[in-house]
């Protein structure tokens, strides 16, 4: 089995886990269920790897890549966009498909074209057809609704408002707040955290606790060089809410050797460590 075929096998499995019905063009039946993922769907350019249908309507596209392409998966975004804007066979209208995915057998990137300034982000799994149907039924995405009248919400406004009414519970008040502090705002509003603190401060606290637990479970503690890299990864999470392989192309990580250096230090543990850190630092 080729690397490409193996990746598609894993993608098929993940789609089925999320409730999608997988079909080939020769057995096309869009009425088979709420969500149908059609392989090699014809467009006016080339066949798209997968086109996603919800309630018989084309809503998204998946560009599939072999696992070795995971480190540069963002490069495939232009291909996904090309298929999303292509004319699909047997489809009326030329509106671009909203939901864009790039996927290997291990990594999934997602872009919602209805967001203000759409950009891709790594997600843990494909969304269920019911979820996409719910989003499609909403007139605007949550991101767009928050930034428009009458709310016109920004992180700075929310933080300042809490500082005025609950000053004894708000830490690190400043004139500028990072986008990542939205997580801290949500956790405080939901009652998950007793104090409203900058997101980066909470990440630092959780990082220390995670390293302590991790070292206690290992035969040997992380080396100094590994700790330097873990701190770089932690800092990236504090500024971006997560870390994935593509992020090693950013300057603060690339300047220290990028993904190649990280693999040299952590080997096969790297992906597991990133998953742990994303969960421990953010969830």
Protein architecture, described:
The radius of gyration is 21 Å and the shape is globular. With 283 residues, the chain is of the alpha/beta class. A hairpin with a 4-residue loop joins strand 5 (99-103) and strand 6. The model has no long low-confidence stretch (mean pLDDT 84). It is 43% helix and 13% strand. The longest helix is centred in the last third of the chain and has 19 residues, at 199-217. The protein has a 7-stranded mixed sheet, sandwiched between helices. Helix 7 (199-217) runs antiparallel to helix 8 and helix 7 crosses helix 11. It contains 11 helices and 7 strands. It folds into 3 domains: 3-143, Alpha-Beta Complex (tt1808, chain A), CATH 3.90.1570; 154-197, no CATH class; 200-282.
What descriptors fit this protein?
alpha/beta, 7-stranded mixed beta sheet, 3 domains, globular, single chain
Give me the side-by-side strand order of the main sheet.
Answer: 1-2-3-4-5-6-7
Task: Calculate the terminal CA-CA distance, rounded to whole Å.
Answer: 37 Å
Helix-strand pattern = HEEEEHEEEHHHHHHHHH
Strand content: 5-15%
Helix/strand structural class: alpha/beta
Q: Give the overall shape.
A: globular
Give the fraction of residues assigned to helices: 40-55%
At the first level of CATH, what is the class of the largest domain? Alpha Beta
Runs with pLDDT <50, length 5+? Answer: none
- Tell me the Rg in angstroms: 21 Å
The biggest beta sheet is recorded as:
7 strands, mixed
Q: In CATH terms, what is the fold-level topology of the largest domain?
A: tt1808, chain A
What would the average pLDDT be, to the nearest integer?
84
CATH hierarchy: architecture of the largest domain: Alpha-Beta Complex
Number of strands: 7
Total domain modules: 3
Number of helices: 11
């Amino acid at each position: 089995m080729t690397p490409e075929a193996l990746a598609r096998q894993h993608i098929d499995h993940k789609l089925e886990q999320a409730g999608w019905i997988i079909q080939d063009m020769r057995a096309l039946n869009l009425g088979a269920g709420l969500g149908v993922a059609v392989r090699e769907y014809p467009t006016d350019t080339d066949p798209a790897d997968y086109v996603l249908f919800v309630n018989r309507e084309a809503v998204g596209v998946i560009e599939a890549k072999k696992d070795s392409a995971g480190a540069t998966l963002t490069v495939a975004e232009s291909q996904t966009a090309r298929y999303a804007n292509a004319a699909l066979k047997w489809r009326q209208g030329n509106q671009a498909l909203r939901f864009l995915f790039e996927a290997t057998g291990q990594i999934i990137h997602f872009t919602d074209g209805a967001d203000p300034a759409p950009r891709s982000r790594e997600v843990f799994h494909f969304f269920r057809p019911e979820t996409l149907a719910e989003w499609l039924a909403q007139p605007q995405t949550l991101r767009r609704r928050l930034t428009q009248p009458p709310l016109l919400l920004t992180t700075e406004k929310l933080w300042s408002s809490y500082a005025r009414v609950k000053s004894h519970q708000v830490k690190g008040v400043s004139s500028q707040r990072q986008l990542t502090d939205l997580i801290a705002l949500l956790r405080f509003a939901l009652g998950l955290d007793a104090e409203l603190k900058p997101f980066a401060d909470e990440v630092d606290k959780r990082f220390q606790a995670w390293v302590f637990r991790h070292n206690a479970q290992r035969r040997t503690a992380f080396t100094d060089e590994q700790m330097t890299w873990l701190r770089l990864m932690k800092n990236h999470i504090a500024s971006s809410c997560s870390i994935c392989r593509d992020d090693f192309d950013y300057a603060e990580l690339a300047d220290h050797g990028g993904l190649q250096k990280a693999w040299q230090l952590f080997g096969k543990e790297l992906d597991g460590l990133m998953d742990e850190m994303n969960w421990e630092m953010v969830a």
